[in-house]
Amino acid sequence: xxxxxxxxxxxxxxxxxRTILGAAGDVRVVGEAxxxxxxxxxxxxxxxxxxxxxxxxxxxxxxxxIERIAALRSPPVVVALxxxxxxxxxxxALRAGAAGFLLKSTPxxxxxxxxxxxxxxxxxxxxxxxxxxxxxxxxxxxGRDRTRALVGGLTERETQVLxxxxxxxxxxxxxxxxxxxxxxxxxxxxxxxxxxxxANRTQAGLLxxxxxxx
Length: 214
Hints:
Blueprint: E1 2-7, H1 11-22, E2 27-33, H2 36-46, E3 50-54, H3 62-70, E4 77-82, H4 88-96, E5 100-103, H5 108-119, H6 127-139, H7 144-152, H8 156-166, H9 171-178, H10 182-196, H11 201-210
Parallel strand pairs: 1-2, 1-3, 3-4, 4-5
């Protein structure tokens, strides 16, 4: 059972999401909150697998809440909820620790599938949106020398895998490109996240772009 926490300042949005997710046999909404501070408290209380987090809320906004959740021990997967997929808030949310984003207009039939994908630890966004957002982040990157120093400590194979993450590739596509098994790629990705201090593969992809890879 995948447990989900909803954080949005509009109760009607939460009710809509609860109805859609509640119809799935393997997904259960365990709670909801209507501002960022309450969202962080709810994460500690319910320990959900996935958090759907609105970015623009009064008081403590979604960006601050994502940062606080990422700092928790064994944090859940956080997926940003947004109205516009090119919103600068999305880039900032990914850097803060979000594993991806969903448009609030996501069709109901796709929402449950994407929540399952997020629960499995995969990035939740279209390939086109990934490249657009990573490109935006790259254009505005700071601290590139530090990033390149981090990447310089990787093995050749780890650097190749990181470059693929910078392109937004899945484990299966990385395996095909580098002629490795998916299990081997998964191991490389896990070690990369530890070495680079990244919360998820999305952050690693952003770092790859910052370093000029991908």
